[in-house]
Amino acid sequence: DAKTTQPNSMESNEEEPVHLPCNHSTISGTDYIHWYRQLPSQGPEYVIHGLTSNVNNRMASLAIAEDRKSSTLILHRATLRDAAVYYCILRAPPNFGNEKLTFGTGTRLTIIP
Amino acid sequence: KAGVTQTPRYLIKTRGQQVTLSCSPISGHRSVSWYQQTPGQGLQFLFEYFSETQRNKGNFPGRFSGRQFSNSRSEMNVSTLELGDSALYLCASSLAGGPQETQYFGPGTRLLVL
Questions:
Q1: Residues B46 and B36: beta-carbon distance below 8 Å
Q2: Are A97 and A88 a contacting pair, CB within 8 Å?
Q3: For chain B, N or C: smaller number of CB within 10 Å?
C-alpha cells in the first residue's frame, strides 16, 4: 500500500510563503493527492487536491512532482490563521470494494508573527 | 448550506459499555465516512457508507459498526468499549464518495472511555 511521509513540524514567518512537503514514493497511478488542515478542536478542512498537474485555488497551490513521488503544498502568504496541522492524504478508486486511503502523520505549522 | 453535524460532541463511557454516535451530512451528500483520530495513531479510516450500504471498510475490529439511513444520516456504534477506543471520532460527507471529491468534515465527537 502507498505510504506518505511528512515532517512533524515547520515554522514560518507571517506573510512569508510556506512550502509543506509530502513524500509518497509508492503512489499508484490512480491515487489522488489531497491536502487537508486541522485547526485545534475542529475537524479537518479541505485545502486542495490534484492528480498529475499542479493545481491552484484561493487557499493554496499544489505542486506535484513529475514522477508523482512527492508533492508540495504552497501557502503563498502565511497568516496566523494558517497555523494548523496539515495532512497529505492519498485516495484511490475502490479496488474490489475497498477504496484505499493513506494518511500522512501531519505537519504542525507554526506561524511566527 | 449547513455543514456536517455530529452529536454528541463529548461523551464519557466506561469499559464494556457501548456507544452510538450520530452524523448528519451536508444536504444532498450521499456518502458518509467515519474516521478515528488519536494522538498515537493519527487519522484512521473506519468505514464509508453510500446509499445505505457500507462501501468501504478500514482495519478495525467488528466491535465498530455503522449504518446509514435513507436520508443519508449515519450512525456509528462501538460495542464493548475498551480504554483504547478513547479518541476523536470524525464524520465526513461528500456527494458520491469518489477519490477526487472533497470531503467535508464535522467537528467530531470526543469519546473518553474510563
A1: yes
A2: no
A3: N
CA-to-CA distance for A84 and A59, rounded, in angstroms?
Answer: 14
* B contact test, residue of A48, A51, A103 with most B CBs within 10 A: A103
Which A positions 3-22 lie with beta carbon below 8 A of chain B? none
- Strand, helix or coil for residue A80: helix
Residue A76 near residue A48 (C-beta atoms within 8 A): no
pLDDT by residue for chain B (114 residues), tens only, comes to 689 999 999 999 999 999 999 999 999 999 999 999 998 888 899 999 999 999 888 889 999 999 999 999 999 999 999 999 999 999 999 998 888 889 999 999 999 999
- Whether A108 contacts chain B with CB within 8 A: no
Alpha helices, DSSP H, located in A3-109: none
Say whether residue A35 is in contact with chain B using an 8 A CB cutoff: no
Residues of B with CB under 8 A from a CB of A: 4, 42-45, 48, 55-58, 90, 92, 97-100, 102-108
Q: Give the count of alpha carbons within 13 A of B56, CB side only.
A: 24
